[in-house]
C-alpha cells in the first residue's frame, strides 16, 4: 500500500535526508549531512520569506550565553571551540575566506550597576563551567590600553577570549557552495506538504514530491506550521533587532563587541534593539537614535562617521531564549531545530548534530533538555 | 567642466571619461558607479568638500567642486 502512495503522477526524487530551510541552521545541517556521505536535498525560499540568516550581527558569542542554563553555555562553548577548524575546512573546500576572527570580545557596561551585575554573571558562568570559561572585567583606564578610542562615559567591560566574529553572509555562501560541491541539491521552492509514510517521508512542493528517510525542519518561522505534520511543536515568536551600517573607515576596532563591530572591509555595524512588533520588518527612528547615541558614547570618534543604511531583522525566539532540538517520537526520522544563534552554533550544527542525524540516532543526550516538550504545561 | 544641466554627477563624470571616483578603505583599489540608483554606495565621491556623496543621486549644479575621494584616517591615527 505504501509503495502505491509513493508512485504519484508527479515527478519523484529520492534522498536520504531533506532539510527544509536554507538559512544558517538549514545550510549547516545540510552541509554536515552531505559531509557524512548522505544524499541531501535542501529547500529554501526567496526574499519574500523572513530570511533571518541574512540579518544578524556576525558574532560568535560565548560570554553571557547560558548564564541561567549551563547546558546551553556548554553547547555554545563546544561550538566556539570547533569554529577555527570549521572555518578552515570551509575555506579549503570552497575557497571562500569567512573573515573569521576569534581574538576575544568586549561587552560594555555603561553604568556601575551594570558593571557589578555583569561581574556576578561572569563569575557564575566560570564556576558553572568548572573554570573552562574565563573572562576579565576591565575598568575605563584598562579598556583604554586595548581600545584607545573608548569613550570616557564607558564604565568598563567584560572581556572573554572565547568570543569572535565572522562575515555571516560569506558563511552562508560558503555553506551553500560546500553543500553543492559535496553533491547536495538545492531547490528554491516553498514546501506545500509534508507526510509521514511508514518509515519514510514525502516532502512536497507545488510541482514535485520528494521521498526521503529523514526530514529536518530548519525553516525558521515556517517550522511552526510544518512541525505538527510530523508530531513536533516549535513555539517561536519574532523579536525585531535593528542594525546601522556605517561608511568604510580605516580599521580601528580589532575585537568584536556586543554593540559595535568593524567588518573586514572597514564598515562598522552598530546594534542593537529588542522590539516586540510582530512581523514588521521596517525600522524605527527612536531605536535608530538610541543605537547611534550608544555607539557614540562607546566610541566618540563615531560622531563624525556617516551612516549609510539601517535595516532590521526578526530574531526567531523561544520564550526562554534557548534553542529547540527535537526528534519526533511519533514520526522517527523527523527533526525540528530552531535557534537565534545560528552563527555561533554553525560549527556544532554542521559537525555534531548533522553526524548524529546521519548515523540514524536520536539527538545527543546533551540536547534532550532543549526539546520543545519543556513548554508543555 | 561644462555639462548638460539635468545630469546626475555620476553620469556627468562617466560621460567625460572619468570612472575612478574613489579608492577603497583597506586595499586602496579604484571604484566607480555600479547600480546608478542609490543602493550600492560604490559611486561615493567628494562634492564641495564633503565625502561620501552618492554621486548618482546628486544633480550637477553651477560651480560644483568634485574631487576624487581618498580614505580618511581615524582619530586613533591622529593621536
Question: What can you see in these coordinates?
Answer:
The complex is a heterodimer of chains A (377) and B (79). Chain A has nine helices and 17 strands. In chain A, strand 13 (260-262) and strand 14 form a beta hairpin. Chain A is α+β, with helices and mostly antiparallel strands. Chain A is globular, with a radius of gyration of 21 Å. Chain B has 79 residues and is an alpha+beta fold. Chain B has one domain. Chain B is built from two helices and five strands, in the order H-E-E-E-E-E-H. In chain B, the strands form two sheets. A three-stranded antiparallel sheet of chain B has the order 4-3-5, with no helix packed on it. Chain B has a two-stranded antiparallel ribbon with strand order 1-2. Classes of the chains: A alpha+beta (377), B alpha+beta (79).
Please name the defining characteristics of this protein.
heterodimer; A: FAD/NAD(P)-binding domain; D-Amino Acid Oxidase, Chain A, domain 2; four-stranded antiparallel sheet; B: three-stranded antiparallel sheet; 14% helix
